Amino acid sequence: MSAPVCEARNLRASYIPGMPIVFDISVIVDAGELVTLIGPNGAGKSTFLKALAGLVLVEGGEVRLGGQRISGLPTHEIIAAGVGFVPQTSNVFSSLSIEDNLISGGHTLPRSLLRERVQRAFEHFPALADRRRAAANVLSGGQRQMLAVARALMTDPRVIMLDEPTAGLAPKIVHEVLDDLRRLAKSGVAVLMVEQNAKAALRVSDRAYVLVEGRNHMTGTAADLLDNDAIAEAFLGFRRKS
Ligand SMILES: Nc1ncnc2c1ncn2[C@@H]1O[C@H](COP(=O)(O)OP(=O)(O)OP(=O)(O)O)[C@@H](O)[C@H]1O
């Protein structure tokens, strides 16, 4: 059996050495899957995602990409190895044009490939193509997220990680962004996201992990977790009618 696209095993991560926020979290994401991390505030979901991207100190366990160990590498090498990371905030350059945002996302690429990838991004996201020379700050919240995802895709990552991609968006736009991510996973990329809009996120996800206090609490198919009364009540904010 081939190695999963991305696998974190018994990860321990901290901002301050010796003071872990993530104690022991294991997660697997494979090609074509949309996997969501849910859990209460402060559970360490964002910290875990940052640890995968090399933005937070990994003190134990390991992260593998296609079987190759990437934990411990500097962030630029992790990105070059095939990880795309979309932070929750400041994920586009507001004053740069949409096209220049894409170019900056692919600045490590040779010029000919860069042109090709910008073109590909505009084909995937026609709403961005229509306004390619406009500054990113004219975009709506949903379109900005689209641009942030398109930037991360410039390097052709094997796995793309998103920290709360729907934060601050209107409910209708939340669904549009989640549907875009669903389509992205279907295209063959492994997608891992942290989401506060847990119910909406589970509806488009294949699988999910519930994280609590820096540890795995539960995992399953998104459908099973949506159907689980205890999970629904504790983490999804609804109680099923009996
Ligand atoms: N830059 C930082 N330096 C030190 N501690 C931090 C930093 N960022 C977050 N923390 C702490 O790490 C803990 C976990 O935060 P994290 O953002 O990973 O949780 P989360 O599960 O994503 O929750 P939320 O949904 O509230 O963001 C919190 O106690 C937070 O205060």
TrEMBL record:
Pfam families, alphabetized: ABC_tran
InterPro entries: AAA+_ATPase (IPR003593), ABC_transporter-like_ATP-bd (IPR003439), ABC_transporter-like_CS (IPR017871), BCAA_Transport_ATP-bd_LivF (IPR052156), P-loop_NTPase (IPR027417)
Residue ranges constituting the ABC transporter domain according to the UniProt record: 6-238
UniProt xrefs under SMART domains: AAA
Protein keywords: Amino-acid transport, ATP-binding, Nucleotide-binding, Transport
GO biological process, one term: L-amino acid transport
Domain of life per record: Bacteria
Single GO term (MF): ATP hydrolysis activity
The keyword Oxidoreductase belongs to this UniProt entry's keyword annotation: no
Keyword Ribonucleoprotein: no
CDD domains assigned: ABC_TM1139_LivF_branched (cd03224)
Family annotation (SUPFAM superfamilies): P-loop containing nucleoside triphosphate hydrolases
Family: Belongs to the ABC transporter superfamily.
The protein's name: Branched-chain amino acid transport system ATP-binding protein
Origin species: Aminobacter aminovorans (Chelatobacter heintzii)
